Threonylcarbamoyl-AMP synthase (Streptomyces longispororuber), 206 residues
Amino acid sequence: MATYFDVHPDNPQRRSISSVVAGVRSGALIAYPTDSCYALGCQLGSRDGIARIRAIRNLDDRHHFTLVCESFAQLGQFVRLDNDVFRAIKAATPGSYTFILPATKEVPRQLLHPKKKTVGVRIPDHAVTQALLAELGEPLLSSTLLLPDEDEPLTQGWEIKERLDHQVDAVIDSGDCGTEPTTVIDFSDGEATIVRRGAGDTSRFE
């Protein structure tokens, strides 16, 4: 059964955050809130975590996993970007955007798009997510909590706990954080291509 954490959305309790992060470091798969919707997350190099996310969401090997980063400095360790792309992404973060970029060698091979060798990265504007990332000290490997054959992500912590009780190890409930996933911008060729219109305003990339 998943451990349930009721965490304040603006002032997350340090003890709860520390408990969740200790679990992540031990291989736990968590469901946690972001500034767009709930996500599944695990430690960066967790093969078991990746397999469990793929199973829950019924994903194929072309799915872009996302590295959820605390800061721009952390993001820069895992992707390559030129000056123009740097400025465009810097201006939009933190926020409800996922950027697809060429990965550096710091990214585990199993996370890369098999042909493009790209990965998704983002810096969320959510106090609970930021607290988790600060405590963890590295990105969370993540994927939107959108179940197969459903049109919208799950939005309530209690419902996630009820439906995924035996598939995840912990659920962080910080209230409703919306149903709209991130806007996805592909910068892998140096130019902005809008892959998915979501919670982030696309006008700055058009």
